[in-house]
Amino acid sequence: MFMTEEGLDIDGVGKLAKAIPQKAWVQIVDTACTTFKDCISPITSTASGLGRLIDAKFERLVESEKIIVSQHFKKANEKVKNTKKTVENKPKINILINVIECSSYETDEIIKELWANLIAQEIIGGSVHPDFINILKRMDAKDAKRLAKIAEESSDKSIKEQATLFIKSIKLAVAGIEFSIPDEPTDFTAEHLSNLNLIQKTSGKWVLTNTGRAFIEAASDPEVIIGK
């Protein structure tokens, strides 16, 4: 196994990649390319020339990045299907292109889950703000856990409910395993989340900003949000 509480054991994955025969690796990459095209075809088929931009962005990725991105979109499509809702709005092409570029090197399972959620939310509602992509690419698993904890401790009932949905997404990434969150944030984690405008200090306590609340909703599993 190459999984740790914080995500993938990169050294282990590297050793595994070296152990894969070239023929098998080529097949894995080919499968990833096919998976991505199958996932994105309903969008590119109606996007005309803009759809070609998505294809071009994906083709420029190195092989390992193509595998990662295809995983994100495959999982996102599964999430969309699980909502059993009709997709009414077209996703914004610039959002999908930026996601492809910014998520292609992500190996942490928790953040990968949040990328898939963000893609699914955009496919369903077309309402993901571009800034959320910049925020997520600057976060790691510890940031996500701390953000969830701060939201969970909110006195606002609606924020606490949203925190529950966000935490469920995090648990999905680690196969439902309970994860630990320190009682107090480290200075860097709190300051980093503050710099991202996700939290702010009020009366000596860290609380979500409006941006933080909107980000948590956008990065939560759409199945539980739409179905609530």
Describe the protein in words.
The protein is mainly α and 228 residues long. The chain folds into two domains: 3-128, no CATH class; 141-227, no CATH class. The chain is built from twelve helices and four strands, in the order E-E-H-H-H-H-H-H-H-H-H-H-E-E-H-H. Strands 1-2 form a two-stranded antiparallel sheet. A two-stranded antiparallel sheet has the order 3-4. A hairpin with a 2-residue loop joins strand 1 and strand 2 (7-8). Helix 5 (93-103) packs antiparallel against helix 6 (109-125), helix 6 crosses helix 9 and helix 8 crosses helix 10. The radius of gyration is 18 Å and the shape is globular.
Number of helices: 12
Mean pLDDT: 84
User: Mind describing the biggest β-sheet?
Assistant: 2 strands, antiparallel
Class by SSE composition: mainly alpha
Intertermini distance: 35 Å
Keywords, separated by commas or semicolons:
mainly alpha, 228 residues, 2 domains, two-stranded antiparallel sheet
SSE order and pairing:
Layout: E1 3-4, E2 7-8, H1 10-19, H2 22-44, H3 49-59, H4 63-83, H5 93-103, H6 109-125, H7 130-136, H8 141-152, H9 157-173, H10 187-195, E3 199-202, E4 205-208, H11 210-218, H12 222-227
Antiparallel strand pairs: 1-2, 3-4
Question: Can you give me a brief rundown of this structure?
Answer:
The chain has 228 residues and is mainly alpha-helical. It has helices at 10-19, 22-44, 49-59, 63-83, 93-103, 109-125, 130-136, 141-152, 157-173, 187-195, 210-218, 222-227, and strands at 3-4, 7-8, 199-202, 205-208. It is globular and about 55 Å long.
